[in-house]
């Protein structure tokens, strides 16, 4: 009992690390463009499928395949911004929501047309053994996934904090007019944000698909990442880092302990129920900024 | 600018408020109704089925239009509220022996109350946050449909008996078509008039700027919840009619995808207009039929997909159409219609 709780918590943290990585893309896009993207799951799916196509049937070496996949994702992110999101700047919020949902649909159906409904296994990228720690078993691939996610987070934080572009992006997050008067082209920053989002989706797509196999169902992770972002607070990167693992744990424990009681399917619902409660108590998430509105 | 037909002089409030002002208006209305209600005598079953589904969808989309188009509260849960209405009406009729009409209205009201519960977050949040909380409503209600096996039948769903009132049993396609159309017309009429009353204007004020609306003395909280109630009432009625039209309900008929599709229909048709919901529904259903027709031809290129192919293809079509409309004509088909109408009324002159 206790051991299975521990295992549930640990694997929840590991899976949650990947949720955080997916969610990072959503936060970066929101911070600079004020668009909330439902497309993240679709980008993740595209990453997973491109990775599968390059590593599996095309048989490229792992390093080259991953780099090419990420390049493709970055290009896709740029195209998304240029051709679908830039034309709707200035329209009400529903427009951006619907465009990103429609893009997610598009990616889903393109994914279905490429790989069908089945599961396409990846060539082994991460080791498949388990570590034993006391009486608790941890899957090696999950642990490695988690470590990669943490390393990427550190890299991103350094870039965001000290890089020139990172600085420009943080400035854009503060105030569009001010950065424009300082000579930064805001629309370029939008593009870069989308590229980062696509990269975060692509990396996590490859990571997840390397253990789970590439399926169309992977795009559902994007919705979970949205829940993570909402609970953590839309603007808050620390919130995302913290809430990803917590949602992972919640999901795992509710699958383990509540599902047998009520007959399954709770792993999908509990995060949303928690989100509803959090939104009612703290409407801007746990770490979000409260917006003061004026007429 | 909305032009009235030439030679219309309103000399009293009755004329000023009229929806149908002139003789040609009335004539076209009567002709339209005649055609609409005599269609079953010379139309194929396929056409009747298509028109009936369009009618049911119009009811649901009108409801969503009141909440999202007029009220500005984004809801990604309309299909779940429709499902609530469908299940409620069927359960009330089967377990509690409610007569059809009573079950229908109880289902509408019950669904409206469920909507109010899930609309409560609207008092504190708006925009995207509200969209997410209604999405949560969709998933939670969907979970209930699936897992309350004792009541909803779980994945097997529920079989629905034929509706009947005033001695008529609605068991033929023609009968059901008339039933659906009556409710569709009632819904359109109700929605159109509601939006011209105090409630409708309050909702528009809240949509445009809720703080300003509050300052002007509009009870924002009350009207937001009222909008949720009305919208989900429409959804509940649509669901109940749907259940009795199709004769069988299961959780897969009320999915997140349907909810999003209703929003898409609203955008394609044009937000904040009654005609827009109708145009959008007809347009999207025709697209669906079009995909249904072409997908067997395209399926030869992608062998080994079967039913999935149609689903994926129609999803791609919807997505592309929604994106194209948002990028090129965000005001929807209704705007084109208004432009056309104004051009016609001013004909020889440009303005």
Topology of helices and strands:
The complex is a heterodimer of chains A (295) and B (351).
Chain A: H1 2-33, H2 40-55, H3 62-85, H4 93-115, E1 130-133, E2 136-139, H5 140-162, H6 164-174, H7 176-181, H8 186-212, H9 220-232, H10 237-262, H11 266-281
Antiparallel strand pairs in A: 1-2
Chain B: H1 13-17, H2 23-42, H3 45-70, H4 78-96, H5 100-119, H6 128-147, H7 149-152, E1 158-159, E2 163-165, E3 168-170, H8 173-194, H9 198-208, H10 210-215, H11 220-246, E4 248-249, H12 256-269, H13 274-299, H14 307-328, H15 332-345
Antiparallel strand pairs in B: 1-4, 2-3
Helix pairs in contact in B: 2-8, 3-8, 3-9, 3-11, 3-12, 3-13, 4-5, 4-6, 4-11, 5-11, 8-11, 9-11, 12-13, 12-14, 13-14, 13-15
Give an overview in words:
The complex is a heterodimer of chains A (295) and B (351). Chain A is mainly alpha-helical. Chain A has one domain (2-219). Helix content of chain A is 74%, strand content 3%. Chain A contains 11 helices and 2 strands, in the order ααααββααααααα. Chain A has helices at residues 2-33, 40-55, 62-85, 93-115, 140-162, 164-174, 176-181, 186-212, 220-232, 237-262, 266-281, and strands at 130-133, 136-139. In chain A, strands 1-2 form a two-stranded antiparallel sheet. In chain A, helix 1 runs antiparallel to helix 8, helix 5 (140-162) packs across helix 6 and helix 5 runs antiparallel to helix 8 (186-212). The longest helix of chain A has 32 residues, at 2-33. The radius of gyration of chain A is 19 Å and the shape is globular. The model of chain A has no long low-confidence stretch (mean pLDDT 84). With 351 residues, chain B is mostly helical. Chain B folds into 2 domains: 42-254, no CATH class; 269-351, no CATH class. Chain B has helices spanning 13-17, 23-42, 45-70, 78-96, 100-119, 128-147, 149-152, 173-194, 198-208, 210-215, 220-246, 256-269, 274-299, 307-328, 332-345; strands at 158-159, 163-165, 168-170, 248-249. A two-stranded antiparallel sheet of chain B has the order 1-4. A two-stranded antiparallel ribbon of chain B has the order 2-3. In chain B, helix 8 (173-194) packs antiparallel against helix 11 (220-246) and helix 9 packs across helix 11. The longest helix of chain B is centred in the middle third of the chain and has 27 residues, at 220-246. The radius of gyration of chain B is 21 Å and the shape is globular. At the A-B interface, helix 4, helix 9 and helix 11 of A face helix 6, helix 10, helix 12 and helix 14 of B.
